[in-house]
Amino acid sequence: MTDAALGTATIVYETPDGEIDEVTVDNEHIAFFQQHWLFAYDVDDDGNDIVRRVPHGRVHYVERSVEELEDTFDTTVDKAKDKLEEIRD
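RESULT FIELD:
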């Protein structure tokens, strides 16, 4: 479920139970904000993104495949801030 024009990001991180998980998403669905990696990894029954927030200390690496990261980064940060505001409300 990725869009090749946006590029992709693969995040490898440690779960709370100590397992290693790897997720690949569109670059627009991942951001680094407040010392956490945030990424949309699923969709709920209402069509809303389900966002996972992983502390940077649990992330082994993030690998990105992109042509122009700067353009997608600005959009991603804005979307992440919007999601965080929704979660707080």
